[in-house]
Amino acid sequence: MIRKRRFFLAFALSALLAVSGLAGCGGTTVRYGDPGEVETLTLEFGSTDLQTIAEKMVQSLLVSPLFGDRRPVVYVSQVKNKTAEHIDTKSITDTISTALLKSGKVRFTAASEINKELLEQLEYQENAGLVDPKTQKQFGKQIGADYMLYGEITSITKAAGRKKDVYYKITLKLADIETGIIEWADEKEIRKGAQKSLLGM
């Protein structure tokens, strides 16, 4: 009986350790991080690059003499990706637009993002007969944009031996829609480098 009991206890302990080992190997630990923490996982365009670019461009644009007491209306065109990698340029555009709007010095027209939905809503209010005429919105009342904000991001990648270098440049411009004159332009450059270890070769 004692021998059987010892065998059973040893078997149960072995099984418990095996299960614990599997859980440890296959488990994933999730933690919240600081969104502003510098991200250096890869050479690809990342969150730190986006935040750096947005801060630089917003500060530059806000000190422009175009923005005084008047709050001009701006049409935003999505930043174009001229790099070889996939970059969510809508995220870049949204971050810059949100920061500018929060400054209180500029307004944005939603026509660049949801023009189709705006027109459908206007048509619904005018034609469906379901909206109180006192609150019904009319065609021809939208505010025309004063300026258009547009730009692009480009990159150059070089590799030699164990070293790799990636250079990013984003250029933004603000053009007067009526005259076509570019009233403001700026660019931000980012260079990132990496070197593989000898063991990684």
Detailed description of the structure:
- With 201 residues, this protein is of the alpha/beta class.
- It has two domains: 44-108 and 145-195, ABC-type transport auxiliary lipoprotein component (Rossmann fold, 3-Layer(aba) Sandwich); 110-143, no CATH class.
- 36% of the residues lie in helices and 25% in strands.
- The protein contains four helices and six strands, in the order H-H-E-E-H-E-H-E-E-E.
- Strands 1, 2, 3, 4, 5 and 6 form a six-stranded mixed β-sheet that branches.
- Strand 4 (147-160) and strand 5 form a beta hairpin.
- Helix 2 (47-62) crosses helix 3.
- The radius of gyration is 28 Å and the shape is elongated.
- Mean pLDDT is 79; it is low at 19-24.
In short:
The chain is an alpha/beta fold. Helices cover 36% and strands 25% of the residues. It folds into 2 domains: 44-108 and 145-195, ABC-type transport auxiliary lipoprotein component (Rossmann fold); 110-143, no CATH class.
